[in-house]
Each structure stands twice: as C-alpha cells, then as structure tokens.
Amino acid sequence: MALFIVIVGSIAALIYSLSLDNSSDKHLSEVSLKEQIILPQYPPKSYAKIDIVQEYLQDLKELYESNRTVLPLRSDELDAYAKIAQEVILKDEQFLADTRVDGAIMHNDMMSIRAALIGSLSSKDALLCDDTECYEATKYNFATDTTTKAIVDVDNREVLSVSRYPSSKPDISLRLKRIAQAITLNAPEIEREVGAIKSKDISMANVKGSLVGSICEKSSHLCVAPTITDHHKQRALWAIIDLTDLKLVAAKWAGVGKSSTPACISERVLQNRHIMQEYCKKETTLRRGSWSLRYRLTLSDGLEVRDVSFNGTSMVKSAKIVDWHVSYKQLSSQLLDEQTEAYIGSRRVEFVEVDDGYLFGYNDAMGCPMFSTSVVLAFNSPQVRDLLDERGERVGFYLVQDFRNPKWPLACNYRYENRFLFYDDGRFATVGVNIGRGCGESALYRPIFRIDLASSGETLHRLSDSAILHTEQTIRDLPDYKTPYQVKSDSTTYSISLLRSDNKINSTTHITTFKESEGDIDLLTLGSCCDLDNDGVEQFIDTDEPIEDMVIWHVPRIKSSGEESKEQCWADTQLGSSGNFEVQEWPCSVGIELIMVDSR
Amino acid sequence: MRRYLPIVVALVAVAGLFIYVELSKKSTSELIEGLSRPKNCSKPPQFFDNPKVARSVVIDLSQQRFKGIAFIHGQDSLYSKQWGQYGHFGTYTLSDSGDIYLAPMPFISIKENTFDLQKNLYKLDSKSAKLSVFMHFDSVEPARSNPFGIISVLFDCQDRSLWVSAIDKSSYSTQAGRVMHVDLESREVIDQIDGFDAFTITLADTDHGRVLLAGSAYEPSLYAIPIDSADQKPIKLFDLLDSNKRIRKIKIIDRDKLLLQVVDFSYSLVAMSSDRYREEYVASYSGSGSWHIGLY
C-alpha cells in the first residue's frame, strides 16, 4: 500500500512539476514533435460557391447598390430592443462616419447589439442609462481594421456615445461564425481530413479585441479559428479562416486540450513549420503523366527541380532561379555622395556609376522561410496545377512556388514565383514571375536561371550564324530570335526558346561546364545588382575551357512600370468592389523552354 | 498503529515532494521580485566633445542612410567611411569610458566576407573614433542555413566586463546559441551559458541578486538568467501572444516594468530595419510569476 502511494504520488508530482517547467527544453521537445499541418491548395474564389457565403456576398452587393454602408445584423441575432437600437444606430452620422473613403463604400458589418453592461459604460453614460434601456452596438470596418462601439438609449432612440478602436477586432456575429464553420467544413483540404470521422463536432472561440493583431499573415484581416474535434481519436483540427477574404488559410491537427487557444497558432507559424518540415528538410518525388522529377526548396536559390525525365529519358539534372538582381536608375551623378550609402525605402542599397547617372539596388535571394540566407521567403507550399492553353484545355501541369517579403505589396517589398512547366508533348520550361512591387516605379530586374542538362558532351548551336559553341562563354541573345539555340549531344537534341510576357528579347546566355561548386549546391549572392555589364556568372567562365557537361545560365532583363495604364511587374492596393482593400497585380514573366527535337 | 507507519511515511514523502515542487515554483517567481534597473555607468564617447557635435546625439544602426554606425544630431550626421568597413551592426553597448562595443548583423544580401564579419565583436574607440575588431570568436560559425553569429552585446558596470550572445549553429530543430561573459582586459571568455539563443540581453537587479534578461531568438519569449547563482539555467518569464515576434530590445523603464521592442525574425536575412517594422510592448510584473503585456 505504502509503495503504491509513493509510486502514484511520485508520478503525480512529476507530472505537476513538468507542467510548471518553463525552461527552453520544453520548447525543444514540442518543436521536435511531428506536426500535421494542412495548407490550402485551391483558389479562394472556390469558397464563394458555398451557399451561406454566396448569400452573404449577395447581401453585400445589394447593400452597396442601395448606397447603404453597413451590413445589418439579421433578426435572429436581435431581441426587440436590439432591433430598435440597430434602426437608430444605422441612421447615426457619427457611427457611419468611417464607412466611406472618397465616396467609395468600405466593407462594414454590424457584429453585435447587446444590452449594455455597466462595465462598458462611461460614468456619464452610466448615469443616463440608470433609468433607461441602453444597448451597446458594435460594428467592424474590414477595410481599415477598426471596431466602432456605440451606446444607444433605446427608450429615447438616442445615440449616447460613439468610440472607435483602430487595429482592433470585435467578437464576430453569429452569421460570420456560421460562415467560418461552413468554409471549414466545405474546404476540400479539410474534408479530406475529417470527412470519414463519425463522431465529430465543430466549435469556435470568439475573437477578442486583442493586442496581437491577427492570426492571419495579414495582420489587419479578421480571422478566426474553428475547431473540429475527433472524439474517437481524442484530437482536434484547428482551422484558420480569413473572414476578410472569406477563405481557409491554414489548419493543423492537435491533441484535444493541446494548443488550446487560437493565439497559439497563426497562418505564418503553421506555414513556416510545414514548409520547413516537408520541403526544406527533404525532397519530394513527383510522377505525373510521362514526367518524373524531384523538387526541393533551397536556402537561397528558390525552388529547384532535379532529375527531370520524360518518358524515361533524363532531360534535366537541375533547374532553378538563383537570384533576382534589382536595379534602379538615378540620372545625374551630381547626386552621388561618396561619403554615404544610398538607401531607398528602408533598405540600404549599393550603387554603380554609369555615364548619365548611377544605378542602385540589391540582390534578392529566395528560399526557405527559416534558417536560410534568403530575403524573399517561401509563402505557402509548392503547388502542382493543371497547365491550360489559350482555349482552356489541359496541355500538361506546372509546379509553382510563391516567394514574398512579409509586407508585400507595400513599397520595397517583393514577390516572385518560380514555375516549372511540364507539357504533355515533352516540352519543359522554367519561368520566373515578378509581381512587384519594388521601391520605385521603374526597376530593371535580372533573374538568373540555371539549367543543368542531363546529357553530357553537349555543344550549343547558334541558329543566327550556324556557329557551334563548345567552350565556356557569354552570348548576347539577339532580339529577332525567340528560339536562338539548339543543344546537341550524342543522345539528344533540344531547341531552346526564350519566353517573355512582353514578347521582347533582352537577355544574355552563358554556357559553362558543370562544376559542383558553381551552383549545383546553393549559391550565395551572385555578382552585383547594378553592374549591368556583369551578371555574376562571368566568374565561372574560362573561355579556353571546353564544355564537357553543359550548364546553361539565362539572364533576361525586364523593366517594371508603376505608371498608370502601363503597369508591368507591379502590384498595388485599391479599395475593391467588395468594400475591402484588394491587391491588384500586374505580373510579368520571363523564362526558358527546352523542346526535345531528337532523341537517339 | 505500527502497521500504518509505512503508509504515513509514504504520505509524508509524497507531501514533501509536492512541497519541493511548489517551492521550486516559488523560487522561479522570486527570481525576478523587485526587478529594477541597475546603476548606469555608460559615458558618451570622448570624440563627442567636439563643439560641432550637439549634446543630443542618436546612435544610428538602422542601415538606412549609413552602413555600419552613424551619429545623428539634429539635422546633421556624423559618419566616417571607416565605420562602414565591417558591414552592418545590429546592437551596441556603451562602456564607462565611452567606448562603443558593437555586434554585427547580416543584411539583405550575403557577400563573400559576410559570414566572417559575424564572428567578430567590434569596438569604436572613445578617443580615436577608430572602429576595429575587438574580439574574434573562432567558435562562432555562421553558415548558409543560419547566417547569424554574434548578435548582442552588453557592458556590465559591476565588473567592467561584457556579456555577448551568439546564435550561430542553431537549426530548425536545435537551439545551440551561447551567452558568453567576456573579461574586458584579457579579452577572454570567463564563463559561458550554452544551448540558449539570446537575441538581446540586458542586466537587471532584483531582491535576490542580479539577472540577465534575455529575449529569445528561438521563441517569442523573455527569459531570466540568474547570473549570481551557481545554476545559470535560463528561466522563461513569459511568451508574447504573437508567435512570429521576437524581443529585440529590452529597457527597464520602472520597477517591475519593461519596454520591449519586438520584430519578426526567423533566422533568414533581415531586410527591414526601420522603426516602422518594430512594435513596442510594455510588460509589467504583478507578482507570483504573473505578467501583463500591452502595447506601448
């Protein structure tokens, strides 16, 4: 008996002491646990098809068409006094004062109208409400992330006070709660996880006006975390739903009673953990149609595909974009102060003098979101999507990875996409997409593509003059040739096409022989952002060295424009028809395509 | 009666165990009771005595207008190109003789010497205004998977020493940083706390001795290290609610009250260093291990 007491007591004391342990060891043990994180795989507009979401969007549309600005609460959320309070408050100029900007309507929802509690009343209002029925009405402005509260004297149909709380989120309405739950249950990614669970229920903690912003990446968005509990397996799925954009942003499985508050999870934390575990620490094998490949996220060379083969024929050992060089031009070198560094936005830049002024800018490396030498970080996981032609017919598939600065599309924040296109007919392309926004309205971008072909003993055949190039060298691509080269080896012949969204050709191609230290493993920043005579690849070129195993480096130049109606490689935030601030994108793309024309 | 003796002994033993655990908990909260700012001994650099330099000077490590370190006074700035030769700095500390000790920081792009620069602690001499490498740490090893090295430095007025933290070698699954106690005269590491990534450090007095307050680079948390105690294990005081944030600066503004500057940090390169990318919180200690954290 005594032994039993000692054993049970010791175990209890141990559990108790572990629960108090605040040391870093506890964190490490938590981190080392395998997490199951689910990231969205479908476009946000798919959620607009859900009945309750559709109805909500229709109500908003009708609201704006009737030139009203605040979506009222429906009668099932209001008692008799609250209905009067809503009628009064939606006519109050002070309450409605922040619902338009330059005449355009911003998205505002009534969130709650409840009997005012003494604790929420100022001493003046408390005195007035002593003998009358007072209600507290709360609305939320999605566009400005502002909560407005008003005290309404229902008996006298009078608004006593209005207070605004910028960067603050209220408890959400019952309608939005149902919408969040509907998005959760209808998201295909969640359905796959919980569809088969028989004993489950969904619950959701209300959002408190918190100091920590939002659990979403966009801190100004209203986000909630519905939870689906699997009673049988004693675990719960936490979903993060963005109610500003009406979409799922992330989800994770946790034990029931663990990670017990939504504050413990956030879109960025879940994304980063998932990307690190699944794509930075290991490679993924993809087999689809006639294609087979592996892919991985690098520390600073973006998304890399390796060992690409078509119909069993090896095509490419490695393809990736190692850097984006960004430069801006300032006319007149009179402004150049040699004593101080140049800067733009909040980023220090290097600069190079040219004839009529100077160029300044920096090198952006893309890669893993944590523990890396990247500055533009992987956002969401790599996605595989259907590749459609102009008629909308499927012609293959593509692999895409989004990279962003966290504050994009604010000035001096960047967003790039790495795309790898796999056509059913055997064509393979590597494409860099630039979605701005950069620091100035006109920047010159130079992405550096590196493609290591799988064959060996290759020679490059220039079609403009039928020259056969078999030593390391730099070639200026000719504007009239969109398919300027063929690569021939003993076993295969590839045609090389240059791809651009603006149909111009302004690029350089370098050919080198394979060396592991020259980009097969992660490259640090390559060359100067702003020395336009040097892409950085030149350091690998010895013009006397014959090519035994060819690596092609393609460096296109593309200019961004923020000028109205001429936007290119650009992004801007504007108040959209939804009443929310929406990002408008003008992406530009450049790339290189390999077409197998002969295989022996 | 004798037959119940083993049971009584067992019950006493278990009770004793619980009391021990409870006392351990109490000692954790006692660790920071009476938290206050220690006496400040820092002096401005002697080269500030130049009449052209105004009395109110701001040390600028923002890397916006200047690489390295600069001094802003009113509309003017004081900068020497020599102060930019070692790349970018993240934090500094002023000594009792006006020397400024600086910790490096990689910024936006990695160049050939970036990793080497992270292995040094730098000193801007109070008299000569010359910037030089004060100490080189061979053991610090920045790499592609974690480009950071020496990250924070603090002058200790009590014994004229430096506290220096490094966060190299840490990875996604392992925390391998060090807090080093460096003797200023001999330039030797006299003590070291292993396995903890301190993003920023500051000293505080408490009713039970001195503690080193440390913002973790690994977690959104503030820790206290009892430096006068034999067991210098970091003890967590609280977590910030936003898991993406890391405490980059700690200032004791009143008894039991801290001003915390927080930034986004994930061991990838820093692109934004201006104030608008930082948030400030006030953390107030209300006793019994309980903290209230609010926006400043």
Unreliable residue stretches of chain B: none
What is the CATH superfamily of chain B? TolB, C-terminal domain
Number of E-state strands of chain B = 19
The DSSP helix count of chain B reads: 2
Largest sheet of chain B at a glance? Answer: 4 strands, antiparallel
Helix content of chain B: 10-25%
The first-to-last residue Cα distance of chain A is 83 Å
Outline of chain A: elongated
Share in helix of chain A: 10-25%
Strand arrangement within the widest β-sheet of chain B reads 4-5-6-7
Q: Average pLDDT value of chain A?
A: 85
Report the count of strand segments of chain A. 37
Q: Which structural class fits the helix and strand makeup of chain A?
A: alpha+beta
The DSSP helix count of chain A reads 10
Number of domains of chain B: 1
Quaternary state, please?
heterodimer
Query: The CATH topology of chain B is what?
Result: Neuraminidase
**Biggest sheet of chain A, open or closed, and with what strands and sense?**
12 strands, antiparallel
From the spread of the alpha carbons, the general shape of chain B counts as elongated
Please give a handful of descriptors for the protein shown.
heterodimer, A: 600 residues, alpha+beta, Nuclear Transport Factor 2, Chain: A, 12-stranded antiparallel sheet, 10-stranded mixed sheet, 17% helix, 42% strand, B: 296 residues, mainly beta, Neuraminidase, 4-stranded antiparallel sheet, 2 helices
What does this structure look like?
By secondary structure, chain A is an alpha+beta fold. Chain A has ten helices and 37 strands. The longest helix of chain A has 19 residues, at 2-20. In chain B, strand 14 and strand 15 (235-239) form a beta hairpin. A four-stranded antiparallel sheet of chain B has the order 4-5-6-7, with no helix packed on it. A four-stranded antiparallel sheet of chain B has the order 8-9-10-11, with no helix packed on it. Chain B has a four-stranded antiparallel sheet with strand order 12-13-14-15, with no helix packed on it. Chain B is mostly beta strands and 296 residues long. The N and C termini of chain B lie far apart (64 Å). The model of chain B has no long low-confidence stretch (mean pLDDT 86). Chains A and B meet through helix 1, helix 2, helix 9 and strand 20 of A and helix 1, strand 15 and strand 19 of B.
